[in-house]
Write a structure and sequence with these properties.
Rossmann fold, eight-stranded mixed sheet, about 40% helix, binds magnesium ion, alpha/beta, binds adenosine-5'-triphosphate, single chain
């Protein structure tokens, strides 16, 4: 049974960075489990933060299919072709696999890519113990139902009222969309001061505050240098605190309640 973890939040709040901390945490603490990470942001950059190459993207595969004059090789349905290419494109790495959505060209293409991605997430998630989805900024992905069911939903806010209010809107929309969600948490990231000023706003979200991650100079430096944060962050404040957050929410694979 797989456990799906999705991350959402306003732009630039740290979804991708925390996805990477999460993947690092999972591969260390659940080393016998298989982990698939999905970069569902058309502006793919999770691979860079994770320090792995991107072989191909879902969009790239669909383009390849569209470019085949005579369609897929005989005996292969379109879906089979897509699955086969995805299997080849999933970058197998150091304890996790990565699939990226890629950027569709032109308007109107998102629908098709999304429905393919949705189908792939459904299918692939059965083959992995953990599926981690790093979403694009905002709430579009919820309306497009990229993730139908989520076991653990982390909504990330930066250290601002606007960020916390966006987290509430995302949480509300997830409810309205009637997504199946096991546990929903707020994480406040890049806090470089006292959280008490945000307390009221956080309370209004109705979300459980899983924890606070401080602004971490090490992350900033690695990011500026274009370096992966995996393996380079052993003793940083942020990764230490993230480990504590996972412990405090008593995260276990058994938490998977939606399937
Ligand atoms: N705790 C932190 N300390 C210092 N810098 C951080 C921290 N978290 C994230 N950052 C930096 O903030 C920037 C935005 O982070 P990130 O790309 O993870 O956000 P995002 O929510 O995924 O953005 P987008 O909405 O564009 O996908 C990056 O430069 C990242 O290195
Ligand atoms: Mg991101």
């Amino acid at each position: 049974m797989s456990h799906t973890i999705a991350l959402a939040g306003k732009g630039g709040t740290g979804k991708t960075t925390i996805s990477a901390l999460l993947i690092d945490y999972l591969r260390k603490t659940q080393s016998s489990s298989s982990i698939l990470t999905i970069d569902a942001d058309p502006n793919s950059n999770l691979n860079q933060v994770l320090g792995v190459e991107l072989n191909d993207t879902v969009v790239g595969i669909l383009d390849k299919l569209a470019g085949l004059k005579d369609g897929p090789p005989s005996g292969m349905t379109k879906n089979r072709f897509i699955e086969y290419e995805v299997q080849n494109s999933v970058s197998e790495s150091k304890g996790f696999d990565l699939l990226a959505m890629g950027r569709p060209e032109g308007p109107g293409c998102y629908c098709y890519v999304n429905s393919v991605l949705r189908g792939l997430i459904d299918k692939l998630s059965k083959a992995y113990d953990f599926v981690v989805i790093d979403n694009e900024a905002g709430m579009e992905h919820l309306s497009r139902r990229i993730e139908k069911s989520i076991d653990t939903f982390f909504i990330i806010s930066d250290y601002s009222r606007v960020g916390v209010r966006s987290a509430k809107r995302i949480s509300d929309l997830a409810e309205e969309m009637k997504l199946k969600i096991g546990s929903k948490y707020l994480i406040v990231n890049m806090a470089d001061g006292d959280i008490s000023l945000l307390k009221e706003e956080i309370k209004k979200t109705g979300l459980k505050l899983a924890g606070i991650i401080p602004f971490d100079k090490e992350i900033e430096n690695l990011s500026l240098a274009g370096k992966s944060i995996i393996n380079n962050l052993e003793k940083s404040k942020a990764s230490g605190l993230f480990t504590k957050i996972m412990a405090s929410i008593k995260f276990t694979q058994k938490e998977a309640v939606t399937k």
